[in-house]
Amino acid sequence: MLLIRNKNLRNTIKIAVPFVIIPVITILGTLAFDGKKHIIIALAVAVLALLLFAAGFEKKSTGTRRMVIVAVMTALCFAGRFIPFLKPVAALTIITALYLGGEAGFLVGSLSAILSNFYFGQGPWTAFQMLAWGLIGLFAGMLSKPLLGNRILLLVYGAVAGLGYSFFMDIWTVLWYNEGFNVKLYAAALISAVPYTVSYAVSNVLFLYLLAPPFGEKLQRIKVKYGV
Question: Which of 73, 109, 136, 217 is within CB 3.0–4.6 Å of 161 for a Cys-Cys bond?
């Protein structure tokens, strides 16, 4: 497992990768690459997500243990996408981030998108899904203390994350349709996507309500026992 020893470099990666580098290559890749080259952008995001994950720990053994749990949570997210209508992907990503850190949450969210899309269909939207679910996990990790201390706040975050996911994916819709951003088209996309937006928010609230207590208990136990 890659170990980044320099603290300043780790801190730089934690800021630059999710908030600058990945968004830039995701948007520019959508505008500059044709549909057949989308997988290059998605793979680049996956590699950067792994780099961000590596920046989240100081000991190699800790990162290896986290990676095992991340693999399990990613597999659960993959399976969850087969559930009709309501999907637990964002909820499981949030739960991972709460107990293992935002970097782990980002990795689970991004890998869940690219891996499951090998079945559901890869496309220029994949990188946007990876970034959207990744950021949902990253912000959950940043807000872990208040979210873990207040279940209502956690459910509210889940609802907001569902709205944010839909709003973010509509940016891709406009860029793909218009080959550039247009406010009027974006507003139209938001309106037409209302049913999906509601389903994302409801899914997150429902699955966080059902899964956060049992999964949280297991992850907390593993965290304490193995120092993950």
Answer: 136
Provide the angle, in degrees to the nearest 10, between the axes of the packed helices 38-54 and 125-142.
20
Residues found in the chain: 228
Quickly list H helices, the chain.
Answer: 7-16, 22-32, 38-54, 60-80, 89-100, 102-120, 125-142, 144-149, 151-178, 183-192, 194-226
Average pLDDT of the residues in 118-139: 94
CB 148 within 8 A of CB 107: no
128 CB-near residues (< 8 Å, 6+ apart): 26, 30, 168, 169, 171, 172
CA 104/CA 93 separation, integer angstroms: 9
Beta carbons of 208 and 94 less than 8 angstroms apart:
yes
- pLDDT (tens digit per residue) in 66-116: 899 999 999 999 999 999 889 999 999 999 999 999 999 999 999 999 999
Q: Which two tokens stand for residue 223?
A: 């965290």
